[in-house]
Structures are given as C-alpha cells and as structure tokens.
Amino acid sequence: MATTLKLILGDQLNCEHSWFRTTDPEVVFVLMEVRQETDYVLHHAQKIIAIFAGMREMARQLQEAGHRVHYLRIDDVDNRQSLTANLDFLIARYQAGALHWQAPDEYRLDQQLQNYAAQLSIAAQMDDSEHFYTSRDEAARHFDGRARWLMESFYRRMRSHHGVLMTASGKPLGDQWNFDHDNREAWPGTPWEPADIRPRHDHSALWQTIQDAGIASFGAPSAADFRWPLNRAEALRQLDHFIQHALPHFGRFQDAMSSKAWRLFHSLLSFAMNSKMLDPQTVVARVEAAYQAGTVPLASAEGYIRQILGWREYVRGVYWHRMPGYDQLNAFGHQTPLPHWFWDGQTRMRCLAAAIGQSLEHAHSHHINRLMVIGNFSLLAGLSPQALHAWYLGVYIDAFEWVELPNTLGMSQFADGGLLATKPYVASAAYIDRMSDYCKGCFYQKKLRTGERACPYNALYWDFFQRNAATLGKNQRLGMVYMQLRKMEPGTLAALQEQASQSRAALETL
Ligand code: FAD
C-alpha cells in the first residue's frame, strides 16, 4: 500500500484529533517550519517561537505515541520554504499515494492547498479540523442574508443548541441571557491579579536558529523565559488555575485596564485555543461546571462563555462569509500610516504607551486595550485599517486572520460600514480615565480639549463624528453625540477641528 501524507499546519496542534486515534505505518504526518508562513506579515518574535516550539512539541508527542512524522525545521537543507514545494518534495520522496490536510482557518491557505490539490495526480482530501462548534458557513445560514449581524442572536442560538447554561425547560440560567451590564467596573487595585502560573520554557536555542535563518520580527523574544503553553496539558493547567483564581472576578473587571497589572483577570488562553492545543468545548464545559459547583458567579461564567461560544464562533462566521475581499474594506477611506510608536511604544500618551508596551513585551494585551485604547485612537486619527490589520496580525500571539481580521477591520475600525458593530467603538479621554489608571501622570490632560496639553483623544473624538456626519449622523445609537454636536458653539467646534488636525499632523511626536 502506498504512503499517505497527512499535513499538519502550525495552528493545528490538536493531538486529540481523530487522525491520531490509531497508528498506521502507511501514514506519515508532516509538519514544516516555512518562510512562507514567517514572512507573510512581520510577526512578533514570541509568536514565531510559540508556533515553532508548539509544532516541535506536537511532533515529539506523535512520535512518542508511535506515529511516523516527517518534520522539516526552518534550517533543514531539504526545506524548500513553501508548503507546496515541500509537499512536492515529500510526495516524491515517499512515493505517496494520497495527501490529506485539515481544513485551514485562513482563506489564503485554504486557497493555496485547494489549488495545489486540484493539480495533483494522487488522491487528495481535506478533513475537518474538529475544533470549532460551528461549520464555516453556519453563522451565514443563521443570519440568512441580513445586512447586520447581531452577535447576541447568534449567541442565544448557540446556547440553546448546545445546551450551555440552560435550564431543563430551555430557559437561560438566571432568567437572563446576558449579564454584560454587570461587567463594566473599573479595577480599584484589589483583589490583586492571580499569580502568573503559566509554564516557563527556555527557547534560547530555537530563537538563535530563527535569527540565523534571517527571519525578521519585532517585540521582545523573551526566549530564555518563555511563558506560553505549548501543549494541551500546560493549557489545561492554565485553564484550571484561571477558573479557580481569576474567573470569579472576570465578569466584574472584564473591561478594566491597569498599568500595574497587565493580565488582570483574563485567561490568556487565546493562543492555546487558536493553535488548537485546547478545544473550546472543554473550556466551556469546565467553566460551566465551576458555576454549577458554586465556585464562580453566573455573571462571570456567562461573560466568559459568551466570548468563546459567542464571539469566537461568530467572528469566524463573518470571516468565511466575507472573504475574499473583507481585508480590503475601508469605509472611511482612512490612509494614514502607523506612527513609529506602534513599533517602540514611545509616545507621551500614557494609555497607548501602556497598551502598546504590553503588546511589544508580552505579544498580548487584553480586549479593552486592543479595542478602546489602540483601536479607538487609530480610528479617531484615521490610520489605515489595512496597515493596522497587518500590525494586529503580527503583534499578538493569538492573531490568526480568521479571528484577527473581523475584530480589527470590523469591530474596531468599522471599516466594513457596520456589519459587526452597531456603532463605532470610539470614546474620549473620559472613558479611558473611568476604566483605567492610565490618565494619572500622563503628559496630556484628560479634561482639556484644546491646547498643547489637551488629551488628543478629546478633539479627535468630536472631529471624527463631525467629519462623518453624513454617514453616522443617521445612526440612532449616536443620537446623543450628534445632538451635542448640533448644540456646540461654532467657535468651539472650529477649535476642536483645528486641534484634531494638528494632532493628526503631529502623530509621530504625540
Ligand atoms: P479572555 O478575556 O480571557 O477571553 C476568553 C477567550 O474568549 C479568548 O481567549 C478568546 O478565545 C475569546 N474571545 C474574547 N473576545 C473575543 C473576540 N472579540 N473575538 C474572538 N474571540 C474572543 N482574539 C484572538 O484570539 N486573536 C486575535 O488576533 C484578536 N485580535 C483582536 C483585535 C482587536 C482589534 C480586538 C478588539 C480584539 C481582538 N481579539 C483577538 C479578541 C480578544 O481581544 C482576544 O481574544 C483576547 O484578548 C485574548 O486574551 P485572553 O485569552 O486573555 O481572553
């Protein structure tokens, strides 16, 4: 019998997949570290290390379990550095009779592998990745051609369909679907964030190999003290610690930000889940069990489950429905390149220095930093959504296009004209001050709207709404904002517009 090659991509590190249930000497599992994947966008150093180290760990586990594995390292002389060139080489080398691969989550890779398979003379087959709750087109079928996709309706269907946090009679537990209004508190400094029990790995040698290969990157490698989980057991330990120590406070402080505690009560499990070491079903089941056992309040359990059963599956549905082309949308026509401080964190705006600084140091920053500090400023200042998409895709350890793109272009930049978000997520300094300690000690004054020390968010905020009155003025959710704008003295508005245009002209030095 001829050999079957089974390709495992860098974000398909799921040792529980049915592919691995039995060993078969005729099957060779293929993993490859390729320049095609390191170079399509500039990545954070920790992201490259994490994916290579996770792949190496998976290969080790498969070999230990008795499977045949062909692993191409980045510096392997046989490595042709592209998926398809390597597959040509391996098909010839093993005289393979069949190629299998798991459904990729990125459109780019999906197309590449389908086109490649179409011209092969051997049998080729795409298998399910067995990770998500939903199929690629399930959200699209749920919304059935509707112009606006309300996450909440999709989420409720998911809860009912999968029987999560539901009563026996089909009602949501606590008689309420959503406890979001309980999740809006700033963090007063106590309780302190739980200990960081993430694993410690020394990946200095791997990092040296990555550098020797000439792969460009940015951000702190932290290779000698690498803190991301690299297999299911490590991810599960982190999950259980999160449930016990952080989840009870997750709901209350979900939107809080702090310069003193970058993790706060978040799980930091997005990399483990997006690389598929950890499946969302286990996460949801353990969180629900903690609620049932009385160790976690319903608002926290529901808030956390909503992110995974709701948002995560929903954005994936948006991605597959709108690709190709979604990555090119730019509803406001914003074209400004990113200022240098996206790459070094050196800005006098303390909130952005903190949020970008965390991102560069840890390859992570939690949702509200991504949305209401970095994304908010970018939209107000008119930065190019495509440049921003490339930055988010590169900087975050959990960034894979299917989840990053709808969050960045859709939710954060409103570049799709409002498919995901009912209104742009923008705010002035008052919001950032309410939800964080960033404004204390900032060079800019949160209450000032004009002048050298005025917080740039303030004038940019009013200017953004004024500039986009023709499109956003009709949005019912923005009625208050436009009423305030209409009531504003013409001189005040003109001064705000002048201040905003100065800020936009001086972005590099803010
Ligand atoms: P927690 O706060 O502990 O949340 C638990 C889990 O819920 C996360 O691990 C994640 O799997 C899921 N989740 C939460 N919010 C979302 C969301 N909006 N969309 C999808 N899943 C969600 N998430 C990514 O996984 N990859 C990205 O590239 C990414 N890019 C983002 C870009 C922008 C502009 C914004 C606003 C958000 C982005 N998110 C992204 C969503 C969210 O910020 C991260 O999932 C979260 O910060 C990951 O950290 P955590 O595991 O500690 O999350």
Report on this structure:
This protein is mainly alpha-helical. The protein has three domains: 4-127, 3-Layer(aba) Sandwich (Rossmann fold); 138-202 and 229-321, Serine Threonine Protein Phosphatase 5, Tetratricopeptide repeat; 341-509, Orthogonal Bundle (DNA Cyclobutane Dipyrimidine Photolyase, subunit A, domain 3). It is 47% helix and 6% strand. It is built from 21 helices and seven strands. The protein has helices at 35-39, 45-64, 83-94, 107-118, 138-143, 151-162, 204-212, 232-250, 270-274, 280-292, 298-322, 341-344, 350-362, 367-381, 385-395, 401-412, 429-435, 456-467, 469-472, 479-487, 490-505; strands at 4-7, 27-32, 43-44, 68-72, 98-102, 123-127, 217-218. It has a five-stranded parallel β-sheet with strand order 4-2-1-5-6, sandwiched between helices. A two-stranded parallel ribbon has the order 3-7. Helix 4 (107-118) links the parallel strand 5 (98-102) and strand 6 (123-127). Helix 6 (151-162) crosses helix 11 and helix 15 (385-395) packs across helix 16 (401-412). Bound molecules: flavin-adenine dinucleotide. Flavin-adenine dinucleotide binds at residues 266-270, 273-274, 307-308, 311-312, 315, 366-367, 370-371, 375, 392, 396, 398-399, 403-404, 407-408, 411-412.
